[in-house]
Amino acid sequence: MGLTNSTYSVFLPALFLPLLCFCFGICTCTNTITSTQFIQDPETITSTDNAFKLGFFTPFNSTKRYVGIMYNFPVASEPQVVWVANRDKPLNDSFGTLKILEDGNLAVLDGKKELLWSSNVSSSTTNSSARLLDTGDLVLQDESSGSKLWESFEHPSNSYLEKMKLSTHVNGDEKVLITSWRSPSDPSTGSYSFGLVPLHIPQLFLWNGTDPYWRSGPWNGQVFIGIPNMNSVFLNGFSLVNDGEGRFYLNFAGPSKSVYIYYVLNSSGTLTEKTWAVGKQDWEVTRGFPKDECDIYGRCGQFGSCNIEDSPICTCLKGFEPKNKEEWSRRNWTRGCVRRTKLQCDRNNTKGEEGKEDGFLKLNPVKVPDFAEWLNVRQDNCGSQCLNNCSCIAYAYYQGVGCMHWSGTLVDIQKFSDSVGADLYIRVAHTELDKKRNMKVVIASVIIIGSLSSVVSAYFTWKWMVKITGLHKQHLDWSKRVNIIEGIGRGLLYLHRDSRLRIIHRDLKPSNVLLDEALNPKISDFGMARIFGCNEDQANTGRIAGTFGYMAPEYAMEGRFSERSDVYSFGVLLLEIVSGRKNNSFYQDEHALSLLGFAWKLWNEEKIVNLIDPTIIFDRFSQMEVLRYIQVGLLCVQDLARDRPTISTVLSMLSSEIVDLPTPKQPVLAEKETCPHTVHSQHSQQTCSIKDYSLTTVEGR
Ligand SMILES: *[C@@H]1O[C@H](CO)[C@@H](O)[C@H](O)[C@H]1NC(C)=O
Ligand SMILES: *[C@@H]1O[C@H](CO)[C@@H](O)[C@H](O)[C@H]1NC(C)=O
Ligand SMILES: *[C@@H]1O[C@H](CO)[C@@H](O)[C@H](O)[C@H]1NC(C)=O
Ligand SMILES: *[C@@H]1O[C@H](CO)[C@@H](O)[C@H](O)[C@H]1NC(C)=O
Ligand SMILES: *[C@@H]1O[C@H](CO)[C@@H](O)[C@H](O)[C@H]1NC(C)=O
Ligand SMILES: *[C@@H]1O[C@H](CO)[C@@H](O)[C@H](O)[C@H]1NC(C)=O
Ligand SMILES: *[C@@H]1O[C@H](CO)[C@@H](O)[C@H](O)[C@H]1NC(C)=O
Ligand SMILES: *[C@@H]1O[C@H](CO)[C@@H](O)[C@H](O)[C@H]1NC(C)=O
Ligand SMILES: *[C@@H]1O[C@H](CO)[C@@H](O)[C@H](O)[C@H]1NC(C)=O
C-alpha cells in the first residue's frame, strides 16, 4: 500500500504543494512511515515544509536504485541527494520497499523481500514510526514511549546539513563522520572522510583514507583560524559545543530562512559548500576545501611553508634548508626542510658558546602548524615557557585559543595573502637571528608588544563585557547604559554626517568600542572603514569581512554596505547593552537562534519587558524609556536596509524628539515560523526590489 503520489512532489514546485493538497483534498504530503504505512518504489514522502523528500532514486549514469533523502526544490540540476540508506547494497530491481519491520526497525527490502539495509537498533518496541523532519533528519521513534531510537543525522552519508551535529568524543568513540561517495554514480563508501578532531585544540579534518588531506586550523571559540574569511558570510554560523563529558560537536545555522546551505564531500575529495536561495535557478558552489594546492595538508613537507601567490609555492622556514636540494629544485617537496644550524639545546656546549641562547624568529600571520599543544599560561609567559623547554621548537598565541607550543616537527604551514592566522615564533640558533638585533631584544619586544596590545584590548573587552553584563560580572545602571548607547550613536553620526569625509565603519561591535574611566565610549578600529564620495549611497564589495552577529544581512550575504548597515550593527549593540546578553550567546536555544530572534519572539508575544537585563533597576518612567530604546533597536535591525532609520533619526528617536515610533518588522535572524514558504517568496520579492531603492528618504528631525 502506498501513500504518496510521487509525480506531484517531483514535478511541482515545492512552494505550491500545500496549496495543491488543500485544493484536491488528497493528502500527498505525509512525512511519516508507520508500521502500517510504507512506501514502495517510486513513492516518496516529504517533510512538512517540503524542503526535503525521502524516496527511491537512481544516481546519474547508473542503473541501480537507492533509497535516499534529497532536497525537494525546483532546481535545474539533478536532485541533491544528502543521505543514502542502502549505499553499500543497491537495489537491482524497481520493486523496493521502505518499511518498518516487526522488530521496530526501518528497513529497505528488494522485490524478493530480501533485506538490503536496516536501521539495526535493538529495541523492545513493536510500534515505531519514521518521520522526515524539516531539517532533513529522518528520525525513527518509539511510538509507545516517544523516545528516539535512531536518526539519519547520526549516520550521515556525504552531506553535512544545518543543525546536524558533527560530533566526536575525546576517547575516539561516538564519531560522526561524513564519507564521500565512491564516484558520482556510485554512493558506496568512498575513500574520503570529514570530521572533528578534539585533541588538544579542536580542528576539522578531511582524510584521504587514513591520511590527513586538509585541516581547518584551531577553533578559537568562534571560527577556525586556518580558514580565511571564516568570520564573514556564511561560515560564521558555526558553533562548537563541549558537553562537559568529553563529547564535542560542531553544528551550524544558515544566515537566513530563504537561503539553504549544506556541505558535501564529493567523490574527488573536495568539501564543497552549496548554497541555494529561494528564487535562484540552481544550487551554487560557494566554497571548496581544500581551496587550492597550498591548502592540501603538508604540501611543502616538514618545516616548509606554502604560499599560493609565490612561485614556486613552497619555501623552507627561515633558518631551514631543503633536505634534498635537487628534489626540491624539481618541485618535489615531499622530503621537506631541515634545520641549518643546530640549536643550542641540541649541541653539547663548548665554553665559548655558552650563553648564546636560542631565539625566536617571527613568521607573520600563518595557518599554524598541526600538532599544537595547548598550554594554560598567559600570553606574556607563552614565549618564555617555550624558550626554557628544549623540546619546544615554536610557539604562537592567539586570542580565544591561547598559548600553543610545538615540539618535534612543524607541518602544514600556509601563508595567506591577507593577514589571517596567527603570528608564529620559530626557535632558531643564535647565529640565525638577525645580527643587528640581540635575541633578548627580540624576545623582550615580542613579549612587551604582545602583552601590551593584549592588555589594552583585554582591558577594554573585559571592562565592556564584564560591566555591561552587570556581574562585576559593580553593575551598570540604566543611566550609564544610556550614556554608552548615545555616545556610540553620536560617534556614528559623526562618521556618517559630521566629519569632513563620510565614513562607513563596517565592523561596529563591542570590542571596537572603547570605554574610558568615566565610561564614555569611543569607536575604534577603522581597519575596515570605507570613505564614501558625496554622491555615493551604497557600495559593493567582493571581500566581505566583519563579525558574525553584527553584520547586516545584505552585507553578509551580498557584500552591499551603506550607512544603514552600520545602523544595523548599532541596533545589535543597543539590544546587547539593554539585555546584558551577547547576540551570539543563543545558539543552543531551540526557540531562538540569536538575541535578535529572542527579542523578536518576545516582541510578538508582547513580553518585551523580559528582554531587559534583570540587574537594571528602574521606575515606571525609566521603564518606558528602556522599552523605547528596545523598539529603536529593533527598528535598526530590520531585515531590509531601507526600513532602517538613519543614525540621525535614531538619535532623535532615542531622545524622544520623534515621539511616534514605527512598528518594527522582522529581523532576518528571527526564529523559524510555521509557514516558511510564504515568508520565503515574500522575502525574495523584497530582495529583488532592493536594487531599486535609493537612500534619499531621510526623515526630518
Ligand atoms: C557512464 O558509465 C559508463 C560505464 O560505466 C562509462 O563508460 C561512461 O563514461 C559513463 N558516462 C559518463 C558521462 O560518465
Ligand atoms: C545485484 O546485482 C549485483 C551484480 O549482478 C550482485 O552482485 C548483487 O548481489 C545483487 N544484489 C541483490 C540485492 O540482489
Ligand atoms: C547490526 O548491529 C550489530 C551489532 O550492533 C552488528 O553486529 C551487525 O553486523 C549489524 N547488522 C547489520 C546488517 O549492519
Ligand atoms: C502505535 O502507537 C500509536 C500512538 O500511540 C497508536 O495510535 C497506534 O494505534 C499504535 N499502533 C499499533 C499497531 O499498536
Ligand atoms: C588519495 O589517496 C589515493 C591513494 O593513496 C591517491 O591515489 C589519490 O590521488 C589521493 N587523492 C588525492 C586527491 O590526493
Ligand atoms: C568536486 O568539487 C570540486 C570543486 O567544486 C570540483 O572541481 C570537482 O569536479 C568535483 N568532483 C566531482 C567528482 O564532482
Ligand atoms: C618525490 O620524492 C619522493 C621521496 O624522495 C619520492 O618517493 C617521489 O617518488 C618523488 N615524487 C616525484 C613526483 O618525483
Ligand atoms: C652531550 O654530551 C653527553 C655527555 O657527554 C652525552 O651523553 C649526550 O648524548 C650529548 N648530547 C648531544 C645532543 O650530543
Ligand atoms: C617541555 O615540552 C614537552 C613537549 O611540549 C613537554 O612534554 C614537557 O612536559 C615540557 N617540559 C616542561 C618542564 O615543561
Automatic annotation (TrEMBL):
Domain EGF-like: 290-326
InterPro entries with a match to the protein in the record: Bulb-type_lectin_dom, Bulb-type_lectin_dom_sf, EGF, Kinase-like_dom_sf, Pan_app, Prot_kinase_dom, S_locus_glycoprot_dom, Ser-Thr/Tyr_kinase_cat_dom
UniProt EC number: 2.7.11.1
Zinc-finger recorded as keyword: yes
Keyword terms: ATP-binding, Disulfide bond, EGF-like domain, Glycoprotein, Kinase, Membrane, Metal-binding, Nucleotide-binding, Serine/threonine-protein kinase, Signal, Transferase, Transmembrane, Transmembrane helix, Zinc, Zinc-finger
SMART domains the UniProt entry points to: B_lectin, PAN_AP, S_TKc
One GO-annotated biological process of the protein: recognition of pollen
Domain SWIM-type: 375-414
Known catalytic reactions: L-threonyl-[protein] + ATP = O-phospho-L-threonyl-[protein] + ADP + H(+); L-seryl-[protein] + ATP = O-phospho-L-seryl-[protein] + ADP + H(+)
Pfam families hit by this protein: B_lectin, PAN_2, PK_Tyr_Ser-Thr, S_locus_glycop
Residues spanning the signal sequence: 1-29
Family of the protein in this entry: Belongs to the protein kinase superfamily. Ser/Thr protein kinase family.
Name under which the protein is recorded: Receptor-like serine/threonine-protein kinase
Natural source organism: Escallonia rubra
